[in-house]
Structure formats: C-alpha cells, structure tokens
Amino acid sequence: MRFAVPLIAAALAASATAAVAAPQVSPRATLAWSRPAVAGSTGAGFMTLANPGKAADALVAAESPAARTTEIHRSSMAAGGVMKMEKQAQVAIPAGGTVVFAPGGYHLMFIGLTRTLKAGDKIPATLTFASGARVKAEFEVRVTPPTGGNHH
Ligand SMILES: [Cu+2]
C-alpha cells in the first residue's frame, strides 16, 4: 500500500522547533483505544497525546507487536466529500499542549494485524518522539470511544 506523503506546513514548522531537543518531561498517551478487527486486516489506534514539557515535541514513529507495520496517518475530507487518509512524517505537540487522535483525524494505522482484536483486548505500542522519548501505550479494544470525562 502506498500513501501520498504531504508536506504539511504545520509539520515543517514543528520540525524546526522540535529539532532543538532539550531534556524534558516525556509526552503521555491517555485514553488509547482501538476498534475490533480481524487478523491480517488493518486496525486504527486513537488516543490523546499530552506534552507536559516546556519544549515542543512531535510523534515521529510508532510500533506494535500486534501489527506488521504501524504508521501515523491523518484522515481528512477531500473535495467531493470523500474521506482520504495520508501518512504523516510526524505530528507536532506544542509545549504544554495536547493532540487528539480520533476517528476522522489523526490515528495510528496498524497494518497487517498479527492477531484478531476483540473488545477487551489490549494492544501494546511504543511511541517515539522527536525529543528521543520512547513512551509505552496500551490501546484498549472497544466498540465505542472512551469518554474523556473525570471518572474516579
Ligand atoms: Cu489510516
């Protein structure tokens, strides 16, 4: 499968700032979830990425033992109302900011699932950031998105 790799202005701007990698607090992934999917097919990972650090960072890679390849994608509405998705070289996260990966927007693409994902399963993944941080995340397989509210 081949995807166009767009040169997104925001990504370029972020690479300029993220290139100056200072020691900082690692980004965090929360509310990570995925949908049920059959082994051999393609799954998607959604989450909220928070950057509590004082410097901008960017997600540059992701990998999971649950998939042959994991890519960073972004879905968007193209002319004519057709949804398209494009591979992203990176996704910038501003200092102190968050970026939401959700259906219809940014997502991880789990290509070539090595196992069938059933509701309740957990998919481990490692996220690599421009700062060099490597962050573990666990995607819960569920039919509906987790709610982002405060539950105690
Ligand atoms: Cu995708």
State the CATH architecture.
Answer: Sandwich
**Number of helices, where a helix is a run of at least 4 consecutive DSSP H or I residues:** 1
Number of strands: 10
The poorly predicted ranges are 5-15
Helix content: under 10%
CATH superfamily assignment? PCu(A)C copper chaperone
CATH secondary-structure class: Mainly Beta
Q: Please tell me the overall pLDDT.
A: 87
The computed structural class is mainly beta
Return the string of H and E elements.
HEEEEEEEEEE
Radius of gyration: 15 Å
Distance between the termini: 43 Å
CATH fold-level label: Immunoglobulin-like
* Count of domain modules: 1
Report the portion of residues in β strands.
over 45%
The small molecules bound here are: copper (II) ion
**Main beta-sheet annotation:** 10 strands, mixed
Shape: globular
Oligomer: single chain
Could you explain the architecture of this structure?
The chain has 152 residues and is mainly β. It is built from one helix and ten strands. Strands 1, 2, 3, 4, 5, 6, 7, 8, 9 and 10 form a ten-stranded mixed β-sheet that branches. The longest helix is centred in the first third of the chain and has 10 residues. The structure holds copper (II) ion. Copper (II) ion (CU) binds next to β8.
